[in-house]
Each structure stands twice: as structure tokens, then as C-alpha cells.
Design goal:
mainly alpha; Four Helix Bundle (Hemerythrin (Met), subunit A)
Length: 133
């Protein structure tokens, strides 16, 4: 069973963004699976994949918001930057020998769903009005 699952209430209506969100969930689930093994090499690989997937998604989402002239783009970017900073801190802690799995998974589960439901759903109408599909 997956640690977290995609649910329809997370859908933004933008196919590429929804696919990226589903990929993020897959990466979180891979990290969960790796953490369960307690194999630090597997965990490190899954953590890096999660960071890469997140960074890529944020970049693509920000490009779409910029193209749409989204009025809250800078605030949205700050939320992304803050999250990536937190991820880097967890990665550094892990590299220094800390067991970050449970703590990071709790953060990821809460943050992802809140971010999509509040921040991302907040841009849907303005972006659609700008003609972005």
C-alpha cells in the first residue's frame, strides 16, 4: 500500500500540473519505501530523486504562472523556495547521519496536500482566465 495517494480533489484541471503532482506523490512513496528498508544508500537515492522531482515541478509551475501573469507569482515562488530550503536541510541532516524518515514524511504529507489545495488551487481561475490550459 502507498504512503499517500492521489485523490481527485487535488486536481487543478491542468493535465501537465496534475501529472507532475502525481509524480511527486510517486516520489514520496518511493522515499517511504526506501525509508522502510533502512538502507541508507536507497534512502539517499530516493531523497535525491524526490528533491529533483520537486525542483523540476516547481520550475515548470512557475513558468506557467509567469506566462499567465499570475499576480501572486512572487509569493508562490517564495513558498517553493522555502520548501526546497527545508528539503536541503533534511538532506544535510541525513548526510550527517540523522534518521530523518518519519519526520520528513510527516512534513511531506501535510505540506503537499495543503500546498496543492490552497496555493495551487488558488491560481487555477486566474491562469485559466489568462488563456493557459
Amino acid at each position: 500500500m502507498s504512503f499517500i495517494q492521489w485523490t481527485l480533489d487535488l486536481a487543478t484541471g491542468f493535465d501537465d500540473i496534475d501529472e507532475q503532482h502525481q509524480q511527486l506523490i510517486n516520489c514520496i512513496n518511493k522515499f517511504y519505501d526506501a525509508d522502510q528498508t533502512k538502507d541508507r544508500d536507497l534512502i539517499a537515492k530516493a531523497l535525491q530523486e524526490l528533491i529533483d522531482c520537486t525542483t523540476d515541478h516547481f520550475h515548470k509551475e512557475e513558468q506557467m504562472l509567469e506566462e499567465a501573469g499570475y499576480h501572486l507569482l512572487e509569493q508562490h515562488k517564495k513558498v517553493h523556495l522555502n520548501f526546497l530550503s527545508r528539503m536541503a536541510t533534511y538532506q544535510n541532516r541525513f548526510e550527517n547521519g540523522d534518521d530523518i524518515g518519519e519526520e520528513l514524511l510527516n512534513l511531506l504529507e501535510g505540506w503537499l496536500f495543503r500546498h496543492i489545495r490552497i496555493n495551487d488551487h488558488g491560481y487555477v481561475e486566474p491562469v485559466k482566465k489568462a488563456g493557459i490550459r
